[in-house]
Amino acid sequence: MNWISGTIKMTTKVRSKYSVCTICDIGCQLRGIEKDGRLSRILAHDNPLLSKNICYKGTAAPHIHNHVDRLRMPLKRVGGRGEDCWEEIPYKQAMNEIAERLKVVIDRYGAEGIAVSTSGWNTQTTHSMDRRFMNLIGAPNWISGVALCAGNTAAVNRLTYGWFPTPDFGNTNCIVLFGHNPRKHSWTPIYNAIKSAKARGAKVIVLDPRISDQAQSADLHLRLRAGTDAAMCLGWLNVIINEQLYDVDFVSRWCLGFDELSQRVNEYPLERVQEITGVDRFLIAKAARTYASSDGAVIPWTPITDQQISSTSAIRLHSILRAVTGNLDVVGGEILSGFSESYIPESELALHEILSEKQKTKQLGYRDHPVFTYRVAEMLKESTEKVWGYPYADLVMGCHMANPTNVFRAMATGNPYPVKALITLGNNTLMSYANQHQIMKGLMNQDLIVAHEIFMTPTAMLADYVLPGDVFSERNHVADTWSWSNRLMLSQKIVEPPEHASSTFQFWTDLGRRMGLEEYFSWDTIEEMLDYRLSRSKRTFSDFEKERYMELPPPKFRKYRKNGFATPSGKVELYSTILADLDFDPLPYYREGPRPTKEYPYIVFTGVREDPFFQTGQRNIRVLRDRCPVPKLFLHPIDAKREDVSEDDWVCLETGSGRVTAQISVQESMREGHVRIPHGWWYPEMRGEETLSGAFISSDAVLCSDDDEFLDFEQGVPHFKGFPGRIFKVTPPVISKTSQVLEKNDPA
Question: Are residues 237 and 363 in the same domain?
Fold first, then answer.
C-alpha cells in the first residue's frame, strides 16, 4: 500500500506469464495476465513470430476459467443415473471410493472391464499417467477422440514411413488442403502460415465440396463429392506415375511396391475418377501436375480425410503422394522429426512394455480393426526402436489404443466381454463418437462412471462421481505437440486452481497410489514430473522456464539415409507389408460409401467445427455463444428452394441412424445436393429443463452409424463424410432465452 496525503491507496498486483492455450488442438502460445489472483486477460504473445497466433477462443479464456458454473467441488451421485442430483464430498473421500469400486470391477470382470476415454487437446497432456495406470493394472481399453481425428492419421502414416510428418510451411511452394479450411479464428497459426506462404508465391490447391474461405483464394479448387478423397488421390497418382512426374531416384532407392502401386492406380483412369468425384478430369490432372512439379509441397493433416469409409486408404494415399514426389524430410516438404532429444516422451512414461501380451490381445478392436491397436504397435516395435530410439511411439496419442466402437458395443452388450467401468476426462464421451444412442446405452449399463471435467457436461451428468479439473492457466507444463514434433513450448502457471480441483496428473497419481502402485507414481507434483522429463538435457523445469519460451532445434533433413524408415522393410511401404500380414489390401483403394436414395436424397457431412467452439465445448460461454447462438445446417439455394425452406427456418435432418434439429443457413458456397451439420451441439442453458441439457437435440453423433458397413475396415473409423440424409421443416425447439441465461452465468 502507498501512503498519499493521509489516505491509503491499495496497489493492484498484476503479473504476466506465458501459457499454451488448450481451448482447441492447435496449442498457441499466449500471454496471460493475472490480477489479484484471477486470470484477468489473455493477450497475444510478445514475440513477433507468435503475436498473430491468437483467436477469440483464446481471448475468451478468462470467461471460461472464472465462470460461476465451473465445477469446484467433487460431486457424488445421489439420484438415478442421469437425474443430475448430487452431494458434495471431499476429494480424498471421492478418490477412496473410486479406488474401492474399481477394485470390485477388476475382481468381477478383470482389468479389461475398465475403459478410459480422454482428450489430450483439453489438457495438453496427461504425461501418459492414464496409460501408465492402465498398463500397470492390465487394462488395455484406452480410447480417445484422436481415434477419429489426427491420432488415426498418425497411426496410418506410421504404416507407410514410420512417423507422422509436419509441414515445412516456411519453405514450401505448394499447399494442398483436403477439406481443410484454416481461418483467422480457427487453426489460426496454420491460417497465418498459409497466408505467409501465399504472399511469397506458394500455390494453394483446395479440395472441398464447399467454396470455403481457403477455396475462395486458392489457385485451384476441386469441388469433389464428400467422401471421395481416396478416389481423387488415386487419380492424382495416375497422372503423376504415367506422366513420370515422380522422384525416380527416391522411389527406386527408398520405396517398396512401386510396380504394384502403378498397377493399382491404372484402375483409376481420370474418366473414372471424374465420375466418382464429380470433378472435371482436366482439372484433376492440372492439380496433380501442379503438386508434383512444385519444388517442395505439403499436404497438411486434415480431420476430413480421417473420417471416411476409406479413411485408411485415403490417409495412406496422402503419405504415398508425399513419398513418390520426393517431399519427405526435405526443405519445403514434410519433416519426420522424431522424438525431442531434450524431453522424455509420453511413450516412455506409458510403460507399454509392462502390459502383458495376453492383455494386449484382449484390447477391443485388436482382431477386426487393428491399425491403431497394440497388434500393429508390436509389429512396428523393432523398426521404431531402431530408427527413433524407443519401441513405442504414441504420436498425437494416436497409437496403441482400443477401437471406440468396439468399446461402446462391449459396454452396451457385454460382447465379447463386459466393460463395466468408464473414466472419462475432458472428453464428453457421450457426444464425441459415432452412434450416440449406443453410447448412451453403454453408459447406462456401467457399474461405475467417473468424470473429470471443468463444467457439468451431458456425460458428467451420467457419472457416479464428478471431479473438478484444472485449466491451462493453472498448471506448469512443457508442451511437445503430443510427440508429433521435436518442438518444446513453455506453459506457465498463471493462477492457482480452485482449492478442490485436480490436474489429470494428480488424479492418476492419487488413484494409482490407492491401487497399490506407489512405486510407479512417485512424483508428488507436476514440477517434479517435468524435472524428470527434462532430465535427459540435464535441466529442470525452472531452468527451462528461465531460458526460453520455445525450443525448436534446426531441422535435419533426409535422416532416413542413416537408419532407413521405421517400417519392417526400412523403406517407404507403398505396398504395406503389415496390412498384407493382417490380410487387408496392402495397396490403397477407393471404397464406395452409401449413395443418396429417393428417401434420403442428400449427401451429409458432419464433424465440421465452428470458429467460436472446439468439439463440444464453450457452448456456455456468452462471448463465444453470441457469435453462434444456435446450430446451423448449411445447404445450397437450389436445395432450399426444392425443400421450401428459407434462411433461419428450423429443419429436422434425418439419417438412417437418427434425427437432429438445426436452423437453416442458405449458402451459395455449398455444393448442390450436400448438407453440412456442425459438431458437438448441446444446450447448457437447458440444464434442468431438458434431459442431459439437450444432448440429443442437435448433436451430429446422433446421425452417424457405427454399423460395420459404415466403418473403415482397417481402423474401424466411422463414416462422417458422405452418408445419405433428408431434411424437412419443423417447429423451432423450445430453448431458454439463451443470451439471458448465459449473461447471468458468464461474468465479463
Answer: no
User: Which ranges of 211-269 does DSSP label H, i.e. alpha helix?
Assistant: 213-216, 229-242, 248-254, 258-265
Catalytic residue, chosen from 25, 306, 464, 746, is 25
Here the CATH number for the domain that contains residue 126 is 3.40.50.740
Cα separation, 295 vs 290, in Å, equals: 10
Strand boundaries in 566-704, DSSP class E? 572-573, 602-608, 632-635, 650-654, 659-666, 674-678
Q: Three-state DSSP class for 721?
A: strand
Looking at the fold, whether 290 and 392 belong to one and the same domain comes out as: no
For residue 482, what pLDDT is reported?
83
Which residue, 283, 303, 334, sits at the end of a domain? 334
Q: How far is CA 337 from CA 271, 608, 725, in A?
A: 39, 29, 42
Query: pLDDT value at position 8?
Result: 35
Model pLDDT for residues 440-461, shown as the tens digit of each residue: 999 999 999 999 999 999 999 9
Residue 390, in any domain of the structure: yes
- Please provide residue 680's backbone torsions phi and psi, each rounded to the nearest 5 degrees: 80, 25
Q: pLDDT below 70 — which residues of the chain?
A: 1-14, 120-124, 734-748
pTM of the model: 0.95
| pLDDT for residue 72 | 97
The answer to whether 25 is a known catalytic residue is yes
Q: Which three cell numbers stand for residue 658?
A: 437418427
Say if residue 366 is in the same domain as residue 227.
Answer: no
Domain range spanning residue 640? 602-745
> In this predicted structure, what is the pLDDT of residue 3?
31
Our count of domains for the chain comes to 3
The pLDDT assigned to 742 comes to: 57
| CATH number for position 650 | 2.40.40.20
